[in-house]
Amino acid sequence: MIADIQEILVDEKALEKRVAELGEKITADYRGKYPILIGILKGSSVFMADLIRKIPIPLEIDFLKASSYGAEARSSGVVQLEADLSMDVKGRSILLIEDIVDTGNTLKYLLNRFESLGAADVKVCSLLDKPERREQRVIADYIGFEIPNEFVVGYGLDYAQKYRNLPFIGILKREVYE
Ligand code: 5GP
Ligand code: MG
Ligand code: MG
Q1: Residue 75: per-residue pLDDT
Q2: Using CA positions, which residue lies closest to atom 12 of ligand 1?
Q3: Domain containing 127: what range?
Q4: Main EC class of this protein (predicted)?
């Protein structure tokens, strides 16, 4: 598995440090707001699990599943909702937890959706940001790391459902998906 990685972009230590920093900032911003943190499955699962333990205030969590990728290493641009929320978000403070914002198509779709569901306030925390490939004018409110235009895996991010369990963010060798 590790033989398929070309380069480690963000190692375990750097992830731990940055997640703690994001947690501290979110804690300060959301004190007294009783937010719902919504993980976008499956990519944000590892990040979400670490992040919520760095936010020691009352909060709730929920998940939804959106996909735009299929088994390709390239976005199709069409976002599909594969599993919906279990909670009512009307009037609530929502913090969406994403693994990566790439074209921005997923985020744009989700922001529209939460607006129409009547959420009081919707913000986004994304572990990674790949600004070079943006097709929509969206930006996350909290960003872990800005990364170059490379296909990355690990710490929740997959290629064809593999590599999510790598403890770091690494660039996948091109020969694996080309
Ligand atoms: P977007 O809609 O912003 O193009 O991207 C949405 C989703 O595409 C992300 O949440 C993520 O699941 C996937 N994605 C985008 N870039 C990468 C990448 O470099 N690696 C992996 N594993 N997934 C990515
Ligand atoms: Mg995602
Ligand atoms: Mg994926």
Answers
A1: 64
A2: 43
A3: 14-149
A4: transferase
Upper half-sphere CA count for residue 141 (Cβ side, 13 Å)? 15
pLDDT score for 77: 74
31 CA distance to ligand 1 middle (Å):
30
Ranges of residues in the chain with a pLDDT under 70 are 69-76
Q: Look up the ipTM and state it.
A: 0.97
Ligand 1 binding pocket includes 101 (Cβ within 6 Å): yes
User: What's this model's pTM, rounded to 2 decimal places?
Assistant: 0.95
CATH number of the domain residue 47 falls in:
3.40.50.2020
Task: Tell the burial category of 65 from Cβ atoms under 10 Å away from its Cβ (0-12, 13-18, 19+).
Answer: middle
Residue 94 domain-assigned (yes or no): yes
Give the residue numbers marked as catalytic: 102
d(CA 89, CA 48): 19
